[in-house]
Design a protein that fits this description.
Length: 177
């Protein structure tokens, strides 16, 4: 499962040439974005380097080489949100996103019910990645970052490593019992 997450950061100084890059189009706040990959149980597998929040999820995935890895690699199903729509066609259907709305206006009742059922089924399957992101953001350094944006990648990946280790230890203890 894959999803992007944003972490709020301090606003860049006035007059800085790249000041607008950090403003998220979604939340209208200064942030950096990272892509998180989890397994079916919500355990963290990968956390990408931080990018300015103005970068779209699908663009971030392309820049990281995810399309090439999925197209050439082993056959796996990757659940993603609507931010990754269009990636399925480039990866031979390996990236599964919520269904598109075929009718924008005056949709028949049967279509609305079917679309809602499909959307909820997809959402309930990918809730684990949201839980994985929530575990990451439980760490105070990622709730809102007050340090330098240049160190954000190191902070995110260090916390991801600690969380992954913690989840592995917990899994090993649970298996012994």
């Amino acid at each position: 499962m894959i999803d992007g997450t944003e972490v709020r950061v301090r606003r860049p100084a006035a007059g800085r040439k790249d000041r607008e890059k950090f403003i998220s189009g979604k939340n209208k706040q200064n942030a950096v974005k990272s892509m998180v990959v989890t397994d079916a149980d919500g355990r963290l597998l990968f956390c990408s380097p931080a990018q300015p929040a103005s970068c779209a999820d699908i663009t971030h995935a392309r820049q990281l080489g995810l399309v090439k890895v999925l197209a050439d690699g082993p056959v796996v199903e990757v659940l993603a949100d609507a931010g990754y729509q269009g990636l399925g066609a480039r990866t031979s259907g390996r990236v599964v996103t919520p269904p598109h709305r075929k009718f924008k206006k005056d949709a028949p009742d049967w279509y609305e019910e079917m679309h809602e059922r499909q959307r909820k089924a997809h959402s309930s399957r990918r809730i684990r990645v949201e839980h994985g992101i929530a575990h990451l953001k439980n760490w105070r350094a990622l709730a809102r970052h007050h340090g330098r944006r240049e160190h954000m990648t190191d902070t995110i990946q260090a916390i991801a490593g600690l969380l992954s280790h913690q989840q592995t230890i917990t899994l090993a203890v649970d298996e012994r019992m």
